[in-house]
Amino acid sequence: MNLKTTICIISMSVLSISASFSQEIQKENLAVNLPVNSKEYQKSILENEIPGVTVTQISITGGVAKNELQDPDYRDIYLFVKGNGKVRANKKTYDIVPETVLVQNDIKRISIIAAKNDTLHFLKISSKLTEQDKLDLKEFPKENTQEIYYKKFTDCEAYTEPIKSPNTVSRTIFPNKYIPRIAMGTVQAPGPDRVAAHEHGMLEQLFFGLAGNNITVFADEAQTNLPEYSLLHIPLGSSHSVKVDEGKEMYYIWMDFFRDKAGEEWLKTHNVIKNP
After folding, report:
1. Would residue 144 count as lying in a domain?
2. CA proximity to 203, closest of 53, 94, 99
3. How many domains is the chain built from?
4. Is there a domain that residue 6 lies in?
5. Could you read off the pLDDT of 104-142 as tens digits, one per residue?
6. What are the backbone angles phi and psi of residue 167, rounded to the nearest 5°?
7. Concatenated DSSP letters for the chain?
8. What's this model's pTM, rounded to 2 decimal places?
């Protein structure tokens, strides 16, 4: 076997190995139509994608009350994305409209009720607390950990970021000082626009398409369309970006799950827009 043939075989082997290790973008669409005669639907989404994190789609129709108990070893975040309803907790009632976030914190029990003649669709994100998380929670302000966190997305703080265009509206819907190592926000822009390629090996990230979202997500050599009411996992450490075409809309939630507290320094790239 001559040298040229040997080099060719080695090159093909390297390419084959590289291809076998290429990361795919895992994605799952939510079911927004309940099965016939069903008043409640529940399903785990993207199971086992992020260690310690469970995402569940829950849908309930009018007249159904969903009671949720907070496990002390976890923290639960609820993202209400379609339909109307109410949440009752500690003798208080919170009105739920599409695009509302609610975090249970130390409240042991909440009740979620869909509005009459409506179907309420939401994601429940449960994150297991590490021993360090439990220590960090004790350092957070008590009002951040012992009371309900409740916000409409449109009422949340806006920010800018170097990787986004001036046409993009970004908001932090869940800051990182309520549950250790977790932050969430929205990104919205009409097409054509894009979020430039970037990497962050210090955190796991999920994207969820909100109403009207129709974007293409790139991660290294992979790409996929993310329509409304779909959830995807950005491969850890990948160089990823987002593109929205002319006539389409970019409107998605990013969910950051940091591997440790030091990784939260990444959030300093978000520049808060000061109100005049």
Report:
1. yes
2. 53
3. 1
4. no
5. 999 999 999 999 999 999 999 999 999 999 999 999 999
6. -80, -10
7. --HHHHHHHHHHHHHHHHHHTPPP-EEEE---SPPTT-SEEEEEESTTSSTTEEEEEEEEETT-EEEEE--TTEEEEEEEEES-EEEEETTEEEEE-SSEEEE-TT--EEEEEEPTT-EEEEEEEEEEPPHHHHHHHTTS-HHHHSS-EEEEGGGSEEEE-TTB-TT-EEEEEE-TTSSTTEEEEEEEEESSEEEEEE--TTEEEEEEE-TTBEEEEEETTEEEEEETTEEEEEPTT--EEEEE-TT-EEEEEEEEEESSGGGGGGGGG-EE----
8. 0.90
Q: Does 82 reside within a domain?
A: yes
- Give the separation between CA 188 and CA 53, rounded to whole angstroms: 25
The answer to whether residue 203 sits within a structural domain is yes
145: helix, strand or coil: helix
List the end-to-end C-alpha distance of the chain, in Å, as a whole number.
Answer: 74
Supply the range of the domain harboring residue 41.
30-272
How open is the CA angle 131-135-141, to the nearest 5 degrees?
140
Rounded to whole angstroms, the Cα distance separating 121 from 139 reads 34
CA-CA distance, 6 to 168, in Å (whole number)?
51
Per residue in 175-230, pLDDT (tens digit) is 999 999 999 999 999 999 999 999 999 999 999 999 999 999 999 999 999 999 99
CATH number, residue 173: 2.60.120.10
Handedness of CA 136, 142, 145, 150 (dihedral sign): negative
